[in-house]
Amino acid sequence: MTQHDLSFEHLQRQIDLSWACIWNHFYLPKTHLVYDQLTSLEKGHEYDCFPTPEEVRRSEPNVCGWGTGMDDSATGGGVMLSMICDRYAVAAGPEMHEAAREIFLGLKACAAIHGVRGFVARSICPADGKSVYLNTSRDQYTHFVHGFWKLYRSPLADAEMKKTIPEVVADIALSMEKHVTPENGYCAAMLDGRPAQAVCEMWGLDTLYPQEAARLPMIYAAAWRMTGDRHFRELCCKYLRPAAEHSCRLFPGPANAFALLQMACSLELLLETLPEEQECMDLCRKAMYAAAECARYNEVRATEIFNQQAGVIPAFTDWRKSERITCCGLSIPEQPAHKVQPERDMGQAALVQLMAPGYSFPESQKILLKQMIARSDFAYIPGNGPMYLQAAYWRLLRDLMF
């Protein structure tokens, strides 16, 4: 068997390289956002094939911007903030203050640049720094609120953040209260106020998967704790118990790692905001433990795919030239070489396990995580999956310290 350097020194060098690659290639100072996928890793040409403002306004190739690289900047920003807070807890330094502020500004823009309070855009067009797609998703809201919650409670939060974050999260909660109704199919609204198409269903336990059930109450819980407005607590408690019970119905088998991580983020926030609701919190802990067990499959599968990769990973193709698939009724540019990004799936799965209260991160899984960090050539990975490996690494170190 090939031996790999799993020493702390080598892992730290790899993490530092991954950190530099995210900021040098995937982060755009113009928008303060981290983008998903690149068609080139040549400096200054990373965004050459991104949608133009006109294409965004025409909702090309779809209303979500799926497949373009503008898919998930709000999600990525939330993950980055969570990771930065964990890293600061392990190794406090002034550079983390600057990093937190840059990501904060990008997420703030996703909630404000379009002028619609309570709407979180998926991303912002690199070309003009202002155009956004009409549709968002519950995934964006989940990581956005979770990341803002962690920053708000961190020593990294300055006076502006302490003022702005509660205002933005309260706007999101009020928008959810207005739009997430039976008449709208329990969907959040698009930018133009219409009930969202696809992936914005926030409630309705007859159709939501268990890993999606706690997204709505977690938003209300965050708004309550940050504003002190008990109206948000009442809204949260309206959904809390059924959400916790439905979360416990998670099927004990393979599931998407990204959905398990979002489930963990939702439940973690509820645990931190509502400790007095003991029965519901016990259910949340039970559901997080079950999600951690499911995530074992994702780590093994990610390792298998990682080991099958040979040579340099190809860059993403220009979405305009890609074949199309149909998902959720939308036409989406396909990227066959990137259907699975093992670095992303490994990091997400490890985070699910590390976040679960009372769950002992198995030594075998820890080795798989370390091996992928040790072996990855971060300078040549065209997707932002290494961001999740970093997040898992710092969460692991934080837990070992505290």
Descriptive overview:
The protein has 13 helices and four strands. Strand 3 and strand 4 form a beta hairpin. It has a two-stranded antiparallel ribbon with strand order 1-2. A two-stranded antiparallel ribbon has the order 3-4. The model has no long low-confidence stretch (mean pLDDT about 95). It has a single domain, classed as Glycosyltransferase (Alpha/alpha barrel). By secondary structure, it is mostly helical.
**Model regions low in confidence, pLDDT < 50 over at least 5 residues:** none
What Rg do the Cα atoms give? 20 Å
Helix content: 40-55%
Helix/strand/pairing class, anyone?
mainly alpha
Shape: globular
**Strand neighbour order, sheet with most strands:** 1-2
Q: Give me the number of helical elements.
A: 13
CATH class: Mainly Alpha
Number of domains: 1
Task: Classify the oligomer.
Answer: single chain
Distance from N terminus to C terminus (CA atoms, Å) equals: 34 Å
| CATH 2nd-level architecture | Alpha/alpha barrel
Biggest pleated sheet: 2 strands, antiparallel
CATH topology: Glycosyltransferase
Number of separate strands: 4
Question: What would the average pLDDT be, to the nearest integer?
Answer: 96
